[in-house]
Design goal:
The complex is a heterodimer of chains A (388) and B (385). Chain A contains twelve helices and twelve strands. With 388 residues, chain A is α+β, with helices and mostly antiparallel strands. In chain A, the strands form two sheets. In chain A, strands 1, 2, 3, 4, 5, 6, 7, 8, 9 and 10 form a ten-stranded mixed β-sheet that branches. Chain A has a two-stranded antiparallel ribbon with strand order 11-12. In chain A, helix 2 runs antiparallel to helix 8, helix 2 crosses helix 10 and helix 2 packs antiparallel against helix 11. Chain B is of the alpha+beta class. In chain B, the strands form two sheets. In chain B, strands 1, 3, 4, 5, 6, 7, 8, 9, 10, 12 and 13 form an eleven-stranded mixed β-sheet that branches. A two-stranded antiparallel sheet of chain B has the order 2-11. In chain B, a hairpin with a 5-residue loop joins strand 8 and strand 9. In chain B, helix 2 packs across helix 13. The chains are: A alpha+beta (388), B alpha+beta (385). At the A-B interface, helix 2, strand 2, strand 3, helix 8 and strand 11 of A face helix 2, helix 10 and helix 11 of B.
C-alpha cells in the first residue's frame, strides 16, 4: 500500500513559509521560461501570419528584404504576363507592384526615432492582403498624397492620427485612415500610393512584385521560368516563406537567450527545491522510521518524497504559467534586426508552451527531490526511530 | 574576530545546505553579471563614440543616401575640421551567418577621424594606394584567418555581385571598447562600379562623419549643417556620434529592457532560495536563541548573528560568482563575437554584483530574524529540533 497523498499535502502546509518560497522560486523560473518562449512564438506567429501561402513575392536576387530589393519597371511588366496569376473579383489580375521605404518616426514615450516601413501600394494590393481591414477613416485615393497607417503605428508613434500630416520627401502626406491587419507585420506599416512615393523619394524601381497564384501548385512552374529567363534577375518566394525568413534571426536570438537563461535560473530553483526536500527529510527522520516500522516499504518512502517534490514543482508550474498567461496582454514593439524596421508583436501562448513549462517545472521538482528521497528511503529503521 | 568565527561556524554547520545555497548564489551572481555585460555590450557603440565627431544622415531615414557634393559645403561650415563619408555596404562573406559590419569609406579622412583604429604606417600607405585594398579589425582577421595580402570576396546584398578585396591592413583598437571587427574599403571603388551597375547610387554616400575642432562647437555646427540643406531634395539630420549610436540602441530598446528585467528576476529567484535557507536555519536553532536570550543577549545580538550568517553566505557566493564571470565572459564573447564585437565586464557590473549580494543577504534575513526575536524564552526552550 502506498502512503496517502494527503500526507504530502499536510507536510507542505506545515512548512508554509518554506513551501511558498520554494514554489515562488520555481514559479519565477517557469514564468521567465514561458515568457521568452511566448515572445519568440509571438514574433514568428506575427511574421508567418503576415504572408499568404498562395502569394508569390519577387525580389531582386541576393536581397533578403524588400527594403534593399529592386525590381525594374521592365521586369515588372514581364512578370505581369505570366499565365499563373489569379483573376480578381473585377476581372483584374491580382498582381501588385510595391515600393517599400523606411522613414524615421518619433516613438511615443521615449521620443526616440525608429524606422517604420512605408509601403507604396497599387490598387490591387488590398485584394492580395485580405487580412487588412479599415477601422477608421477611408482608403487613400490613388494618385494623391493620402496615406493610411496600421494600428500598431497609430498606437506607438507620436502625431499619428486621422488628418494629421506626415512630412517627408518634400511633401505632406495626409493620414486619411487607420487599418488593422490583426497580429501581422502589416499593422506596423504605413500605406500609400506607390507611384507617389517613388516620385517623392526619387526611386526608379519597385521594391517587390507580388501576385496571387491561381493554383497553389503552380509555384514551381513560376520558379523555374524565372530561373530560366536572363532578363529576370529575380528571386521568388512564397509570401509565407518570405516573412518566416525575416523572423528567423530574431526568433533564434530570443530562443537562445531564453533557453540559456532558463537553464541557469533552473539550477537556482533546483537547488532551492533540493534544500527544501533535504530539510524535509532531515526533520522527519523519526517519522520515516515510524512509517517503515508500520510496514511501508523503502519504495513507498521513496515515492512519497518524490511525490512531495513533484507537488512543489507542479504548484510552481501552475503559478508560473498563470502569471505568464497575463503577458499575452502586452505588445512589444521593437526593431527587427533583419529588416531594420519597427515591428510590433504580442506574447503568444499555445499548448506546446504550456506543456513545456509544466514539464520543465516537474523536472525541476524531480531533480530537486530525487537525492533527498533516496536518502530517506535508505534509512535503517532502528537508527531512524532512535533519532529525536 | 570572535564573532566572525562564530558566523562562519554557524554558516557551515549544515554543510550540505550551505553548500547548495552557495552554489545557488554563485550561479545567480554569474547570470546577473553576464546579463549586465550583455546589456553593456549593446551600449558599446555609444561608449566608444567620441565627443568631437558628428554624424550627418538623410533626415527621412538611414536608408536614403546623401549627395557626394555635400562634402565641400559641409567643409565650409565654421568649426568643422575634417569631413569623411561612408556607405554601409552590407556585404556577406560566404554565408549570411558570418555577419560583420562592412563600410565603404573615404580612407584618408576616415583614419584621421578615428585615431582609435591603430594601423601600422606601412600598411596604411599600401592601403591608401590600392583601390581594391581593405582594412580589417584584428578580431575579424582572427575569425576568418585572414592575413595581409589575402584576397577576400564579399557578396553584395545591396550592391549586387561579387566584390573582390585585398587585405592591406589589420588594425588594432587603442581602447578596450574599440570595435575590432570592422571591415572598410575605398568608397571610390564602390562608386566606380556603382556608376555602371547602379546609377541610382552613383555619387551618393550613406552618411557623413564630421570632426569638429572642439566638442563645445558641436551644437552650433549641427544646426548650421542642417540649416544648409533645408528644403533641398535630401535634407540632413546631424547629431553627435553618441546620439546617433544611442538611436540604434533605442530601436531595439524593448529587448534591452526585457534583459534588464530578467537580470533582476534572477536576483529574486535567488532571494527566495536564500530566504528559505535562513528560515530553515533559524527554525532549527530556535532553542539556541532562547538559550542566548536566557544568558542575557538581547535582540540586537541575535539579529547580528542571523544577518551576519546570511551575509557570510551571500558574500562568499558573490565572490565566487564574480570570479567565474571572467572565464564565462571569455567563452561567450568568443561565441557571440559576431553580434557583440565588444564584450567587456564593466566596473559597475562588479559593484552591482556586490550590491545584489548585500540586498539578498538583508532581505532574506528579515523574516527569520523577526521570528527568532519574537519567540518567548520558555516557548523556545520547550521546542525540540
Amino acid at each position: 500500500m502506498a502512503i496517502p497523498l494527503a500526507y504530502n499535502f499536510r507536510n507542505l502546509w506545515t512548512r508554509r513559509l518554506t513551501t511558498i518560497l520554494t514554489v515562488s522560486g520555481m514559479a519565477l523560473v517557469v514564468f521567465v521560461f514561458a515568457s521568452i518562449l511566448m515572445l519568440a512564438e509571438g514574433l514568428q506567429k506575427t511574421l508567418t501570419e503576415t504572408g499568404s501561402f498562395d502569394n508569390a513575392v519577387f525580389l531582386r536576387k541576393g536581397s533578403n528584404s524588400e527594403v534593399v530589393s529592386g525590381v525594374t519597371r521592365q521586369q515588372a511588366s514581364i512578370l505581369e504576363t505570366f499565365p499563373e496569376i489569379a483573376i480578381g473579383p473585377r476581372g483584374q489580375k491580382l498582381f501588385s507592384r510595391e515600393a517599400v521605404l523606411l522613414v524615421a518616426l518619433t516613438k511615443k514615450g521615449s521620443d526616440k526615432p525608429s524606422n517604420v516601413v512605408l509601403r507604396g501600394i497599387d490598387e490591387n494590393s488590398l485584394f492580395l492582403r485580405p487580412q487588412v481591414r479599415l477601422v477608421e477613416g477611408r482608403l487613400p485615393r490613388m494618385g494623391s498624397t493620402e496615406i493610411i497607417v496600421g494600428t500598431s503605428i497609430a498606437r506607438k508613434f507620436k502625431n499619428i492620427g486621422i488628418n494629421e500630416k506626415l512630412c517627408c520627401g518634400m511633401r505632406d502626406w495626409r493620414i486619411v485612415g487607420i487599418f488593422d491587419a490583426g497580429s501581422t507585420g502589416f499593422s506596423s506599416e504605413i500605406w500609400g500610393d506607390g507611384d507617389q512615393f517613388m516620385q517623392a523619394f526619387r526611386r526608379s524601381a519597385y521594391s517587390s512584385v507580388i501576385f496571387k497564384l491561381w493554383d497553389s501548385s503552380e509555384f514551381e512552374n513560376v520558379k523555374s521560368r524565372i530561373e530560366g529567363d536572363p532578363r529576370l534577375t529575380l528571386e521568388v518566394k512564397r509570401e509565407t516563406k518570405y516573412y518566416a525568413d525575416q523572423s528567423e534571426v530574431m526568433a533564434k536570438f530570443l530562443r537562445i537567450l531564453g533557453i540559456s537563461l532558463t537553464v541557469i535560473f533552473s539550477l537556482g530553483a533546483v537547488i532551492g527545491a533540493m534544500i527544501t526536500m533535504y530539510s524535509a527529510v532531515a526533520n522527519r527522520i523519526a517519522e520515516i522510521g515510524t512509517l517503515r516500522a508500520l510496514g511501508f516499504k523503502r519504495r513507498d518512502i521513496l515515492i512519497a518524497f518524490l511525490l512531495e517534490s513533484l507537488l512543489l514543482g507542479f504548484l510552481g508550474g501552475v503559478m508560473g504559467l498563470f502569471f505568464a498567461s497575463f503577458m499575452q496582454l502586452i505588445t512589444i514593439s521593437t526593431m527587427n534586426f533583419q529588416t531594420f524596421s519597427e515591428l510590433a508583436f504580442n506574447f503568444s501562448l499555445n499548448f506546446q508552451i504550456i506543456y513545456m513549462g509544466m514539464a520543465f517545472a516537474l523536472i525541476m521538482g524531480f531533480v530537486g527531490g530525487v537525492l533527498p528521497a533516496i536518502r530517506a528511503s535508505r534509512m535503517i529503521i532502528v537508527d531512524a526511530l532512535r533519532a529525536v | 574576530m570572535l564573532i566572525l568565527k562564530v558566523l562562519f561556524r554557524n554558516a557551515f554547520r549544515n554543510k550540505l545546505r550551505t553548500g547548495l545555497t552557495l552554489l545557488g548564489i554563485t550561479i545567480a551572481i554569474l547570470a546577473f553579471g553576464l546579463l549586465r555585460t550583455l546589456i553593456s555590450a549593446w551600449y558599446a557603440g555609444v561608449e566608444a563614440s567620441s565627443a568631437t565627431r558628428l554624424v550627418t544622415r538623410n533626415s527621412v531615414s538611414i536608408i536614403f543616401p546623401l549627395p557626394h557634393f555635400y562634402k565641400d559645403k559641409i567643409q565650409q561650415v565654421t568649426g568643422v575640421k575634417t569631413v569623411s563619408y561612408g556607405t554601409w555596404f552590407g556585404g556577406v562573406y560566404g554565408d549570411e551567418k558570418n555577419f560583420f559590419a562592412n563600410f565603404a569609406v573615404e580612407p584618408k579622412s576616415f583614419l584621421e577621424l578615428y585615431p582609435e583604429f591603430i594601423l601600422p604606417q606601412n600598411e596604411r600607405e599600401t592601403f591608401l594606394k590600392e583601390q581594391k585594398g581593405c582594412v580589417v579589425g584584428r578580431k575579424l582577421a582572427e575569425r576568418f584567418k585572414w592575413k595581409i595580402g589575402d584576397l577576400v570576396t564579399l557578396k553584395g546584398t545591396i550592391f549586387l555581385g561579387n566584390w573582390d578585396f585585398v587585405v592591406r591592413g589589420i588594425y588594432r583598437g587603442r581602447d578596450k571598447d574599440t570595435d575590432e571587427s570592422q571591415f572598410f574599403f575605398h568608397w571610390d571603388y564602390l562608386n566606380e562600379i556603382s556608376k555602371k551597375a547602379l546609377p541610382g547610387w552613383a555619387d551618393q554616400v550613406g552618411y557623413y562623419i564630421i570632426g569638429v575642432n572642439r566638442p563645445e562647437l558641436s551644437g552650433d555646427v549641427t544646426v548650421a549643417i542642417d540649416q544648409l540643406f533645408k528644403n533641398s531634395l535630401a535634407e540632413t539630420l546631424t547629431e553627435t556620434e553618441k546620439a546617433f549610436q544611442q538611436g540604434f540602441v533605442a530601436m531595439s530598446g524593448a529587448i534591452v529592457a526585457a534583459i534588464q528585467i530578467v537580470s533582476f528576476v534572477v536576483i529574486f529567484i535567488i532571494m527566495a532560495v536564500v530566504a528559505n535557507t535562513m528560515a530553515m536555519t533559524t527554525r532549527e536553532r530556535i532553542g539556541e536563541y532562547a538559550i542566548l536570550k536566557t544568558l542575557g543577549f538581547g535582540g540586537g545580538h541575535i539579529t547580528a548573528l542571523i544577518f551576519g550568517e546570511s551575509l557570510v553566505i551571500t558574500i562568499l557566493g558573490c565572490l565566487l560568482g564574480g570570479i567565474l564571470t571572467f572565464p564565462a565572459t571569455k567563452v561567450i564573447s568568443h561565441e557571440l563575437g559576431a553580434y557583440f564585437p565588444v564584450f567587456n565586464i564593466g566596473r559597475e557590473t562588479l559593484y552591482l554584483n556586490l550590491a545584489a549580494a548585500l540586498i539578498i543577504a538583508f532581505v532574506s534575513a528579515i523574516i527569520p530574524t523577526r521570528r527568532a526575536i519574537k519567540i518567548r524564552i520558555a516557548d523556545g526552550l520547550r521546542r525540540i529540533g
